[in-house]
Amino acid sequence: MLKVRNLKVSFRTEDGIVRAVDDVSFEVGEGEILGVVGESGSGKTVSLLSVIGLIIDPNAEIEGSIVYKGRELVGLPQRELRHVRGNEIAMIFQDPMTALTPVYTIGWQIAEQVMTHTELSKSAARQRAVDLLAEVGFPNPATSVDRYPHELSGGMRQRAVIAMALSCNPSLLIADEPTTALDVTVQAQILDLIQKLRRDHGSAVVLITHDMGVVAEVADRVMVMYAGRVVEHGSKRDLFRSPWHPYTWGLLDSIPPLDGARPRRLKSIGGNPPSLLALPPGCAFSPRCRYRFHRCGERPELSGTVGHRAACFLPPEERESGRAARVPIAAGAS
Question: Which of 48, 52, 75, 290 has a CA positioned 20 to 30 A from the CA of residue 203?
């Protein structure tokens, strides 16, 4: 359904060129859930905003290829992109309070998108909004449709954003950290809604998150990003049971163990992510990696099997010893 090849996104700044996304490639198949994980600033959101043409900064430069259902999206005029965006490819934004316009009711905003991409009348679009709110779990959709965003809780606002994204039954849904700042009960409900979308409509989902527990729960494949690059990519089972990259080990170590002795504190990755204006030569993770050696001064390329690849020079025996100290597999990863 979606094929991204050698995607590069750069921004011109007063301090120099910032390469926010550096040679990223991935695919998403029909009905598949791809989890994209990494720390803040790793290029997750910028990569997917490029897919739907929402990077319109005059100082931005996008290179590479983004093919959706056989159609090249890079360089496509905004007028044509609008027919794809919201209709065939929809996005759930991270902060529902800023994603929704505060001076319009949620029903008006959902109906507006429906009327933009379909030939439904105003009354039919409003009824479609009521039906969507019911589908995402609003208790009184007929009255909630006339509420403003500030009248809703955080969980209800997130549901309204999801309803808007589902309004045209998109083939591909991009969910940008849809459970951030929500309590665990609401998080579980939102994840259930995303899985229900795949079951009911056959949609593919790209789930952007920094929460490995969320990935273990819903994803089919996982792509790990660091400093604008893909450092590991594989099936959920392979990545949780046999991760290859030390950065992935660090992410997995941050998950609280489900059994055994309770640790005094969770493990963390030492240091800070590098500045994209001054990336270290070779492997960008090497300054924070306890396993670095002389070859880390070279830039590693993704290598491995067809279904599991990592950008790391560590030989197999070193990977085995490095994984030995990992925490148990997260629930759902099997």
Answer: 75
Please tell me the distance from the alpha carbon of residue 126 to that of residue 132, in angstroms, as a whole number: 10
Q: What is the pLDDT of residue 72?
A: 95
**Mean pLDDT in residue range 235-242:** 91
Say whether pTM exceeds 0.85: yes
Q: Which residues pair with 7 in a beta bridge?
A: 24
Q: Which two tokens stand for residue 195?
A: 């899985």
Q: CA-CA distance, 215 to 233, in Å (whole number)? A: 13
First-to-last C-alpha distance (Å) of the chain:
26
What span, in angstroms and rounded, lies between the C-alpha atoms of 173 and 194?
A: 9
Percent of the chain with pLDDT over 90: 54
Q: Is the dihedral of CA 140, 114, 46, 28 positive or negative?
A: positive
Q: What is the pLDDT of residue 62?
A: 95
| CA–CA separation, 130 and 111 (whole Å) | 9
- Tell me if residue 216 falls in helix, strand or coil: helix
Q: Which two tokens stand for residue 63?
A: 């290179």
Buried b / exposed e over 174-208, threshold 16 CB at 10 Å, is bbbbbbbebeeebbebbbebbeebbeeeebbbbbb
Closest CA to 246 of 264, 227, 223, 269: 269
CA distance 73 to 81: 8
Cα distances (angstroms) measured from residue 209 to each of 38, 127, 202: 7, 33, 22
Q: Strand, coil or helix: what is 107?
A: helix
Compute the distance between CA of residue 317 and CA of residue 323 in angstroms, rounded to an integer. 10
What is the b/e burial string over 227-261, where b = at least 16 CB atoms within 10 angstroms of the residue's CB?
bbbbbbbbebbbbbeebbbbbbbbbbbebeeeeee
